[in-house]
Design goal:
It is a single chain. It is globular and about 75 Å long. By secondary structure, the protein is of the alpha/beta class. The protein starts with a helix and ends in a 20-residue tail after the last strand.
């Protein structure tokens, strides 16, 4: 092989690496993100089904506030286009009935009970009222089918004038693309994990699983942070995005104090579940001027 071919090959490799790095970049400099970094976030509220505190319930959010945490919540849209806070589309696990959130009206959903308690599925308006001015929210939008645009529009309309700190995240890059074009001042985050090895990714095509796992969708969505599954945190693209390109990492879902400490030590915002974190150690006060 001629020496000039080696040069061309090296140049091509260097170009691909630069393109890869450019694709992983996140948006920088959003001041509101600094406020969100001061909190730990209870995954679907501070819930415990065995003690009668269902996930994503009003009761679980009251415990969040009592503990001084923020909350991660899940938002879906009903058949009659109301916004409700519930993780699953299928209602069997949480409400013990057949059906999907997106196929039912708000009135029908309000008749259901969460995990055998007297708690009902809350509307997003109710949750915002509880947290307003008290603690921040990580709002995950969970679109189904073709309701991405409507879900985004109605959520953002409801957030107008909201007196509280929040960000919006989603596994679906279309949500972040919509936010980038229409609501650029909202802090947005890309949710992801290693879809190449986890069963949740089997419903996607191989190219889609590859793009989501390696965060290459950042090229068009430019999130403010990346929320990645804690167990998959050694993904090369994530580590490059966070450590080399200085992107903000959010770790989900952390289930022990040890892992929470590790995540915070690495600069990640923790989303926790299944235990009550120890209070953060207080930072030593800086000596005042003129004192020894």
């Amino acid at each position: 092989m001629k020496p000039i071919l080696y040069v061309y090959i090296l140049l091509a490799i260097a170009l691909l690496i630069l393109l890869w790095l450019f694709s992983l970049k996140t948006r920088r400099g959003q001041r509101k993100l600094q406020v969100l970094k001061q909190y730990r976030y209870a995954h679907r509220g501070l819930h415990n089904a065995r003690r009668g505190i269902p996930e994503n319930s009003i009761l679980s959010y009251r415990y969040v506030l009592a503990g001084g945490f923020g909350a991660e919540i899940d938002v879906r849209m009903t058949k009659d286009k109301h916004l409700v806070v519930i993780h699953d589309s299928d209602l069997r696990r949480l409400c013990g009935v057949k059906g999907r959130v997106e196929d039912m009206t708000l009135e029908q959903l309000k008749l259901l009970q969460l995990q055998g308690t007297h708690e009902s599925i809350p509307r997003l308006e109710e949750v915002l009222t509880i947290f307003s001015g008290k603690a921040p929210l990580i709002i995950e939008l969970k679109p189904e089918g073709r309701n991405v645009r409507s879900l985004c529009e109605r959520t953002c309309r409801l957030l107008e004038g909201y007196q509280g700190d929040y960000c919006v995240e989603s596994f679906d890059p279309r949500v972040l693309w919509w936010l980038r074009r229409n609501e650029p001042f909202i802090i947005r985050g890309q949710l992801s994990q290693n879809f190449l090895r986890r069963k949740e990714g089997m419903r996607f095509s191989l190219p889609a699983r590859l793009l989501l796992t390696t965060l290459l969708t950042n090229l068009v969505t430019r999130p403010d942070f990346v929320a990645y599954r804690y167990e998959d945190r050694n993904c090369l693209s994530l580590r490059t995005c966070v450590e080399l390109l200085r992107g903000q990492e959010v770790s989900w879902t952390i289930r022990s104090q040890e892992d929470l400490d590790k995540a915070e030590a690495a600069g990640a915002i923790p989303i926790f579940e299944g235990f009550l974190p120890k209070p953060k150690p207080k930072e030593p006060e800086k000596p005042r001027a003129g004192t020894a």
